[in-house]
Amino acid sequence: MKTIKLFLTFALIGVFQLAYAQTDIIVSGQLLNVSTAPFNVVTLNFYDGTFATSSSANTDINGYYSHTFPGTLTSAGTVELIVHDCNNDTIFETKAYNVSTGDTLVNFTTFDYCPTTNPPATSNVYASGNLTNTNSVAISVLLSLVDVNGNTMNATAITNTNGDYAQTFSTTTTSQGTVYMQVLDCNADSIYETKAYDLNVNDSLVTFTTADYCPAITPPVMAIYASGQLTNTASAGINVSLELMDGGNTTSVTVVTDANGDYSHIFYPSTTQGTVYMQVQDCNADSIFETKPFDYTTNDTLVNFTTFDYCPVTVPTTCQAYFTVAQATGPNGGTIAGSVQVTDGSTASNPANLTYTWYFGDGSPNGVGTALTHNYPLNGPYALCLTINDGLGCISSHCDTISVDASGLLESEGFTLYIGTEVLAVEKTNFSSAVSIYPNPASDFIHIEYNTGNKALNSVTMYDLTGKVVFENNSNNGSAHKMTINTENIETGTYLIKMLFDDEIYNQKIIIK
């Protein structure tokens, strides 16, 4: 009994080991009607209940393929075959194996890789769709059927009062293809769509998406892009004024430059044409100003201003008016009574742009130019002045007092200061030597002494070059005959002191340094 039990135990162990030994599974098959090149891929999927794997095999020139899956731990499983044939259809088959019964060879059915397909003798493809918002107007819809072989059939369908359209295509070539639909809507925009059909699966109805034939169009918002740059800003934010004018409408904004001096703004004008203005005050308090047009109809929507230097180095200009006076002479060299010849003798750092304005002091129109002849009708005296302007901020005036003696000859009597648009009248006095104003130039004080006999001093007035009164004293000093003007708070420059003695006027130029 013991011997029999031991034999049975070893027998059972052998069966157990046989059931669970790893055994290779050999898969094979054949595809007919393949090309001679061995590149037809066969996909094989292996399942043993606990393990799954996938592999690919290539057919040889006769269409044979094979593959060995390594040993499995279970006794039974399946192998799947997947092949896409030359018509792009799928060949699929499943085979089982059972190691315990010795069934380890999986032979798939022989399949035709490139079977001949016969399309139906005549098949119809039905294309249809709908256009809304047609206002019951008949609309032409272009339809084109293109099969997989490139054969094309074109047709034009007309919508009914409800906007429906339909077309039947009869095809005798292939069972698959595409139908194209195109129509121009009321805004001349294209509506376009494609749909596929496949008669092999009874997919012969091609229904296009319902489309709005006349959609409302929102006009694009007009935008004007204004930009520019200021250099030399030291990364400071500079305020730039921008103003858009279009058809009488004005939109004003202030933008700030970034660290690079760039600035920009988007305007939304109400009309298609207009102008954008840019203005900024530079570091020298001078104005930078520029205008640029825009025209939306020609896509001229970018307004790029010139790049300006925000802090240019300014070189002050200098100018000094001066002229000479001579008696005018006739063609034969003789003097002309009462007539004066004036000639410019001014100097300036920018002489090319100088303008010359002459004030003759007799009520006659002003003169222009560098050399003039002028006739004085009476004896005077007259204040003759020349003002020059270089257009760059430098303005200078020079004056002289002119009198005509009994014989018609001219006398130059001294300096008279140009004040604004008028000239202070200079009266001829008989006591010029009786007045002393010193020092000249002055710094802190001006001393005035005078001895005019019975002529009382009524007032003393001091003017700057603009005609502004910087000092005035209307008190009668009686017998003191002297006074002092404190000039510590008066800016340096050229001034005129005017003294009124009863019916006499005395003028003198004074310089404060």
TrEMBL record:
Keyword list, A-Z: Signal
SMART domains the UniProt entry points to: PKD
Domain of life: Bacteria
Ranges of residues in domain PKD: 323-404
Signal peptide per UniProt: 1-21
This protein's record includes keyword Hydrolase: no
Xref: CDD domains: PKD (cd00146)
Keyword Iron-sulfur: no
NCBIfam families, per the entry: Por_Secre_tail
Name the record gives this protein: PKD domain-containing protein
